Amino acid sequence: MVDAARSLTKDSSLTRDSEKAAARVGLRSGEIVIHGGKPLNGSIRLRGAKNLVTKAMVAALLADTRSVLQDVPTLSEIGVVTGMLNAYGVEVAAPEDGVLVLDPTNVERAQFHEIDALAGSSRIPILFCGPLLHRLGEALIPDLGGCRIGDRPIDFHLNALRAFGAVVDKSYEGIRITAPDGLRGTNIELPYPSVGATEQVLLTAVRASGVTELKNAAIEPEIMDLIAILQKMGAIIWMEPNRTIFIEGVDQLTGYEHRAIFDRNEAASWAAAALATGGDITVLGARQPELMTFLNVFRKAGGAFQVQEDGIRFWHPGGHLKPVQVETDVHPGFMTDWQQPLIVALTQAHGTSIVHETVYENRFGFTDALIEMGADIVVHQDGVASVTRRVPRRRLEQAAVITGPTPLHGADVTVPDLRGGFSYLIAALAASGTSTVSNLGIISRGYEHFIEKLSALGADFVYEG
Ligand code: EPZ
User: Fold this and answer.
1) pTM exceeding 0.85
2) DSSP string for residues in 303-320
3) Is 147 one of the annotated active-site residues of the chain?
4) Going from the N-terminus, what domains does the chain have, and what CATH number goes with each?
5) How far is the CA of 196 from the centre of ligand 1 (A)?
6) Is residue 9 scored above 60 in pLDDT?
């Protein structure tokens, strides 16, 4: 089972030349040495969104027949979910590149130590609760992993499960959830439109008896894609204005065939890389509707883009980049996962930019390394009072004030989390001189074949996988 996870974890991009070069310069595993200051030019292709694919894999557990998921990227996070599903008896096969076949016909109880070994590196195990309660009457959730970007509590998830009639017992091993009287449709209003809690409710309500009304739901495009998958499986789900979702439970769901929505976080990351390095990158597979908010900010910052038949071309049109004010928010706002790569580009804007983080309470830690590389960034723990806030409702008020342009110079930096880590790659590519970025394994959780893509875009680097 763990082997299945490992085989999906390995980034196949490592070339023999790169291995030899890495040996010559004495690089350690998981490190890249980047010689920066060169624009990235060329095209790369996206595949399905990590933040949909992993949930779609969990949804397969609800069916009594096999599902087929297409456009699945090679990511370590998907290896973890594969391992979890294997532990519960779901067979996961990859008959060809980008295709997963998930067969849940022999679902069985897992050994706690098996799931515990995998869960510590991911947030996805919490989403197994509803499907496992329906299939096995019990769910064991070990301590969760995922990026360290704040407290990341699971109270919305547990309260929602309790509302369906589940009983939650906390033990030293983790959380044991049972449903002695089955799961019943219910009315839930989330305190905040949490992506994960909305998915939790969807994955539980589709087979609970009766109707569930979910108020203040998250409506991210990946959630809409998950709803599309559930509908293909036989679920009855409809939406009303103001973030309200209704789910009418059904007795049985069958497997789905689905092509995953593209990864808009990866698209925004490469767009920011084009801007920060003065380059020109066509991101094949990117679509305009899901990126509209990002595209507006990209344009305001001085970036140019062109929507094409099969992707979006992003480039630096010359001249000065401009400062922007941005607040992260739930969809359709500016995603919290877009601010880290954008901030690198904003270090080159002429003037002062302000980025407020309203989704997570600790998502500017990555800026320390950018400051070390020459950026002028000041993080205000309580936000910037003088700025008119569009999202004043949360106490999470951290703001980063970025003053530019400041030349970036190479440094040795360690990846702290997924999006922050990718922003280090961008900074190293934009910087003059040489940088070493280590702990790259975290980036493989969410960026498929990023080493191959850097190579295709003309980056000058040496890598040790
Ligand atoms: C998802 O995390 C994504 N992860 C995140 O992407 C993304 O940043 C986030 O949604 C927002 O878009 C996955 O899809 C695997 P939330 P999730 O529940 O579902 C608080 C990446 O880099 N909250 O919407 O965990 C929470 O602390 C990752 O790809 C509670 O208080 O996010 C946060 O402040 C990082 N209690 C806010 O809600 C809860 O029970 C939003 O979290 C749940 C959440």
Assistant:
1) yes
2) -EEEEETTEEEEE--SS-
3) yes
4) 2-46+262-464 (3.65.10.10), 50-259 (3.65.10.10)
5) 6
6) no
